[in-house]
Amino acid sequence: MANQDKIKILILDDEPIVTKRLKSSLEKIGYEVETFNRSIDALERCRKHRFDIVITDLKMEGIDGIEFLTEVKELYPDTEVIVITGFATMDTAKESFKRGVLDFLAKPFRISELKEVLHKATEKIKAKKQGK
Amino acid sequence: MLNKILDFFFKKKGDSPSLRSVFIHFQKLIQANNRSLEIMSEMGEVLSGEYIFDSKFIRDRTKELLDNVYKMIVNLDFIAPGKYRVLFDNFYEIKLALEEEVKGNVYLPDANYTIFYEDIEDGMVDVVGGKNAALASIKNKLGLPTPDGFVITTQGFKFFVHASKKSEEIQQVLSLWKKNALSTDEASKKLQKLILEVELTDDFEQEIKDIIHKLKVKMNLDEIYFAVRSSCIGEDSEHSFAGLYESFLGIREEELIPTYKKVLASTYSRRAMEYRKRKEIGEKEIAMAVGCQVMIDPKVSGVIYTLDVRSKKIDRMIVAAIYGLAVDIVGGRREGDIFYVDRSSPYNLIDVQVRPKRRTTIFDRETGKVAEIKVEQDKVETACLDEEQVKYLAQNAIKLERYFKHPQDIEFCFNKDGELVILQSRNLRLSDIKLYCNIENLTDKLEVIFSNKGDIVQQGIAFGKVLKLRFDQEIDLKKLEDKILVVEYPSPRLARMLEYVNGVIADRGAPVGHLATIAREFRLPMIVNTRVATKLLNDGDEITLNATDNVVYKGIIKNLCYYDFVEEKFEDTREYRTLKRIFHKVSPLNLVEAGDSNFKAENCKTLHDIVRFIHEKAVQEIIEKSYQANISGEGSIKKLKIDIPLDLVIIDLEQDFSYDDKEIPLDCISSLPLKSFVQGVSYSNIWSREPVGVDFRGFMSSLSRTFSPHLADPRFVGQNLAVVSNDYANISLRLGYHFTMLDTLVRERAADNYIYFRFFGGVTESERRSRRARLIEKILLQNDFFTTVKGDLVIGRLKGMMKEYILQKIFVLGVLVAYTRQLDVKLINDESIEYFLQEFKNLTEKIKQKQ
């Protein structure tokens, strides 16, 4: 993949173990990844820069995941959002999908499951780009 | 009100609870039992590295597990009031430890200040230091010789710095230094002086004396000398600290404590403090553990780099060796002989550079001192290691590299008996060597044989030739070296092979089986449940297994392996270490067999022990209570209607049978495992085959044999019982003179499923009994069970397999029970074992064909 074609991903999770491990395994398969452990920093970055895909946790200090992803979707309706959470309930899932989330993964999840979802997202993004 | 509720539950007979309420509590207990087992499996699975998890997961699951085990204890206490209350004490002790671990504190029950190397478990790096933790893994996991001895843990350091009479002053100096009110040089001098002045408490000193005494007794030594080595803990990886702290050789017992203080003082050497300041490593993150190892006076010592970083040739290892101690090589004063060795089997020597070795350093036991001596003339210009030794060394060095998943810098020696001892192994500093190419470009060009087919048991990358093994095939272990083992089932039989192979791929199985657990202990790359491996891979194929990303490539791609080396290790993360320590307090099973003398509530050491114990006792209680209830006319016990005289009584926890039916036909039973088992027992005409007449000797011994008291209440001798629900069955049978117990759970999710099978007792003299035990063990092994044999008792365990497979194995156990009913009397000699083994195999193969 040439650099300009790389899919840009932002990952937000308050636990560094999650962002660190995801970053290294996603970079390895060709994604460009930025990670944040505080939602305020992630939001700030999003306001200045558009990401193709955003992966976010839900429960966090300060701005929580729902608030964050809502703003991201408002800023960039085409950005695909994937939720990863340890508090997976029907309600949180419904709430997320209502706001246009592409998929919802409960922690702990297999890296391969996330890769599948990312594949789906990438196809969607590519299709949109070609359509334009 | 409460009394009324209690009265309701206890209405039947005085203060013993009613059978219905006992059933309700038993069901709750079984639910908690199953959930506990699920959580333990999940914890093991997550340790494979395939899952993304966080500290919340560790906290939540540990709490949920504790809640469920507590529920089990409470429900058992309802079923058998007051009988097993000691479980509460054991539970609280484990709970306390787990709660500390969840907070990130390493919980050490008794050993506060010292611990033997053999007692060091995974994940204890914060307590014993990186170097010591690595040595313990080498000794305890890989089974390679390392020096004997013990570690003075970081608890000791914490005492010096935070709890001794000097700690206040130490903290003051540190704070002044931090504010730049003191120069590093001044602070260092003051701190080192203070550390040396600290007096150990009586407890601390006594603990060190006690452990020295134990070590001397264990090693049968009158006099003991130590190598005292620093092992520092910090956020940075340990090799950056190399050479910053002091180590001492040839230390007498009485000098150990003063030397220990010297090593601790070196934590505050000027160089070390400067280094930490530069790297912004907080002083709070620092702790020093000290290894106290029995001094070896070796013939030859040296250092291996598993990659030749010196000449940047990454296809070879480099070994430097010299007579006596390795201090001169490590310290860079002498170079020794240099050997270049191939990195793969058979580890050919590429080049040897013999250097003149006129002088060397040894440990002189006479004087107890480290001294420099002249090397004997004829040895000066000969190589100090022969080819065999170098090859053996290289082979073991690669084992270490694989385990630690990084090229290693290893210090070794050959002791007086010529035995290889690993003195230290740490990650090799790769400096500017680039080990990997662009992996995207690399993998684009590779031919994928299959990908994302199975479940990862243990991440990692391995390459080698395929070796396919059929389920009953014996093999010379040497042939396994450097191979990728490809099998249909991950049978526990393969366990002893794991240390030889580079990786494992299986068609079936789940990542929670017995073999999976062992692979994870060895950190061996392994994938199961691929469904295609044995079809797509052939003997001798060269492949690369990427068990990190779940891909199998054609060809041997060394670069991929190197890529794995430079990744940050999941095993090095704090969360992994915490979960691993928790897992060790939760999962090992010490109480395997109900008949063992240690099978007592007070011996439960882990949550798994408690779960196992309660489950066993609860089943016993429910059988007893049902029996009593039946006598008093209250029971809902029904007999199974079947053609053979199995005489099986069923207690169904979910299904209510009509009161009028005395016997229930198999069709009306909703318990899947019970159905499979009964179908197995009544399969073909095996049951009704004529038992061979017992010869006189056999008959006499059957008369004199009494029943083992733990197996069943005497009232139930002759009573065959099944406690079942839709997905669960516990079946105890007494057939002929055998006792059989089967406990099994069969669900859709493979990870939930297990079989526990126990076979005991029988007519005829001990020799024939043990023959029968051997035969049954072999049959169980053939069917991929994990087995334990103690005398005439055979236990078979199986877990983490899919539903259809488990049901088929239950069926086979049914056939086995019918088949061996009277068999022991036929087992007149050892050859007959093989005969019957083969006969049984033929029998079950026919079943497979029919199915």
Poorly predicted tracts of residues of chain A: none
Radius of gyration of chain A: 14 Å
Termini separation of chain B: 58 Å
**How much helix, percentage-wise, in residues of chain A?**
40-55%
- How many helices of chain A? The count is 5
Shape of chain B: globular
Strand content of chain A: 15-25%
Low-confidence stretches of chain B: 1-14, 235-239, 691-718
Classification by helices and strands of chain B: alpha+beta
Q: Could you tell me the number of beta strands of chain B?
A: 31
- Number of helical segments with 4 or more residues of chain B: 26
Question: Oligomeric form of this entry?
Answer: heterodimer
- Supply the number of structural domains of chain A: 1
- Can you tell me the CATH superfamily of chain A? Response regulator
Q: Alpha-carbon distance between the termini of chain A?
A: 21 Å
Domain count of chain B, please report it: 5
Gyration radius of chain B, in Å = 31 Å
Q: Can you offer a commentary on this structure?
A:
The complex is a heterodimer of chains A (132) and B (851). Helix content of chain A is 48%, strand content 20%. Chain A has a single domain (3-131), classed as Rossmann fold, CATH 3.40.50. In chain A, strand 4, helix 4 (90-98) and strand 5 form a beta-alpha-beta unit. Chain A has a five-stranded parallel β-sheet with strand order 2-1-3-4-5, sandwiched between helices. Chain A has helices spanning 16-28, 39-48, 65-75, 90-98, 111-131, and strands at 8-12, 32-36, 53-56, 80-85, 103-106, 109-110. The two termini of chain A are 21 Å apart. With 132 residues, chain A is an alpha/beta fold. Chain B is built from 26 helices and 31 strands. Chain B has 851 residues and is of the alpha+beta class. Chain B folds into five domains: 2-108, no CATH class; 148-294, Dna Ligase, domain 1 (2-Layer Sandwich), CATH 3.30.1490; 300-414, D-amino Acid Aminotransferase, Chain A, domain 1 (2-Layer Sandwich), CATH 3.30.470; 447-556, Phosphohistidine domain (Glucose Oxidase, domain 1, 3-Layer(bba) Sandwich); 648-850, no CATH class. Helices cover 39% and strands 20% of the residues of chain B. Chain A binds chain B through residues 1, 13, 15, 17-18, 20-22, 24-25, 28-30, 84, 86, 107-112, 114, and chain B through 42, 46, 50-57, 60, 439-440, 452, 456, 548-550, 567-568, 570, 573-575.
